[in-house]
Amino acid sequence: MARIYSILFVILLLVAGCAGESSAPQAASDEAAAPEASSASSNSDGMQEVVIQPVGDQMKFASEAFTVQSGTKVRLVMDNVATLDAMQHNVVILSPGSDINTVGAAAIQAGPDNDYVPADNENILFYTAIAGPGEQTVVEFTAPAPGEYPFICTFPGHYSLMKGVMIVE
Q1: 36-168: CATH class
Q2: Fewest C-beta atoms under 10 Å: which of 21, 50, 73, 167?
Q3: How many helices (H) and strands (E) does the chain have?
Q4: What H or E segment, with its residue span, contains residue 13?
Q5: What span, in angstroms and rounded, lies between the C-alpha atoms of 108 and 53?
Q6: Could you tell me which of 82, 54, 79 has the C-alpha nearest to residue 136?
């Protein structure tokens, strides 16, 4: 009798464990299917504003891409919504084809006094200063020629995870 109860118990565990599973594959969510893109809004003077935020206290940009028009003025805002002191961020826009690892390594050498942005680096086009948790920093620039321009956070250790692309049309 004890053996029958043991077998029934094992069957019950198997049925309960599989009850919530489906054998059909599930469609990927929109977020997993494509990186989220930040929209650039234009204000009354024709300047396009782009706001970039991290995903909470993670080393990840909430927007992995944004689009601007070539030749227009752009106001790029790093809105650091993180809460942990270690989550300091900036946005550094690089020229197409730049080696992110080389720029990231040079950023460490640049240090905090330079917002972890190496001086005289031909790969760096535009950047915001470091924003601490709850802070915003801004840079304004004229959008360059059409192309895809990578952007990263150069705070030490962040550049390999915090990256995206500025698409210029």
Answers
A1: mainly beta
A2: 21
A3: 3, 10
A4: helix 2-18
A5: 22
A6: 79
Q: In one letter, which amino acid is 99?
A: D
Interatomic CA distance for residues 158 and 139, integer angstroms: 20
The tens digit of pLDDT for each residue in 99-123 reads: 999 999 999 999 999 999 999 899 9
Over residues 48-92, the pLDDT tens digits come to 999 999 999 999 999 999 999 999 999 999 999 999 999 999 999
Inter-residue contact 73 to 140 (CB < 8 Å)? yes
pTM greater than the 0.70 cutoff: yes
| Alpha carbon distance 4, 7 (integer Å) | 5
Give the amino acid at 101.
Answer: N
Cα–Cα distance, 111 to 60 (Å, whole number): 21
